[in-house]
Amino acid sequence: MARPDKAAAVAELKKKFSNCAAAVLTDYRGLTVAEMKDLRQQLGADTSYAVAKNTLAAIAAKEAGIEGLDDQLAGPTAIAFINGDIAVASKTMRSFAKEQPLLIVKGAVLEGKVMDADMAKKLADLESREVLLAKLAGGMKASMSKAVATFAAPLSKAARLVGALETKAKEDPSVIGGAGEADQKPQAQEAKEESTDVAADSAASE
């Protein structure tokens, strides 16, 4: 590979290391071209999977700020740069490896940290983004239900109190209106007495 081509390849790998959500390094020895194509199709558009020269990948990784990847860059290497859901892509690779044992995970890079083969395989045990979002939504729904119940409790108590008062008022109107009527009777009596006094005064003056 000519020097300009190597520089371009390193720049491209550096970009992928810097921008991907995770990178999974594999040994692909024994896989046919058709099988590797099948793996790419299963991984989908959010993950690129291609053979990489170890020396160029090592340079690109270091330029991207990734240290300690030399052990994984031994022997034939193909790298899956995951730009979508890490769990989904990792599960896809694990399923493929069960059918094609020649695909061997050598390690991974997650958030700039290098992972050995065992840790890299555990990425497939992560829950997918959809599952996490569903759980988050479920948790939020439960929290909202609790909040609504908390706010509704005083209102329901008030509603029950009003209902009880209405029932009591039907049985005994004085509960609500009685006091008003009691106040009105003395006032009416006073008005009547005042009217009688005025009439008496008028008669006396005549």
TrEMBL record:
One of its GO terms (cellular component) is large ribosomal subunit. Gene3D superfamilies: 3.30.70.1730, 6.10.250.290. Forms part of the ribosomal stalk, playing a central role in the interaction of the ribosome with GTP-bound translation factors. Keywords: Ribonucleoprotein, Ribosomal protein, RNA-binding, rRNA-binding. This is Large ribosomal subunit protein uL10. The keyword Hydrolase does not apply. Pfam families: Ribosomal_L10. One of its GO terms (molecular function) is large ribosomal subunit rRNA binding. The keyword Isomerase does not apply. It comes from Propionimicrobium lymphophilum ACS-093-V-SCH5. Part of the ribosomal stalk of the 50S ribosomal subunit. The N-terminus interacts with L11 and the large rRNA to form the base of the stalk. The C-terminus forms an elongated spine to which L12 dimers bind in a sequential fashion forming a multimeric L10(L12)X complex. Belongs to the universal ribosomal protein uL10 family. Signal peptide: none annotated. The gene is rplJ. GO terms for biological process: translation. PROSITE patterns: RIBOSOMAL_L10. Residues 169-206 are annotated as: Disordered. HAMAP family: Ribosomal_uL10.
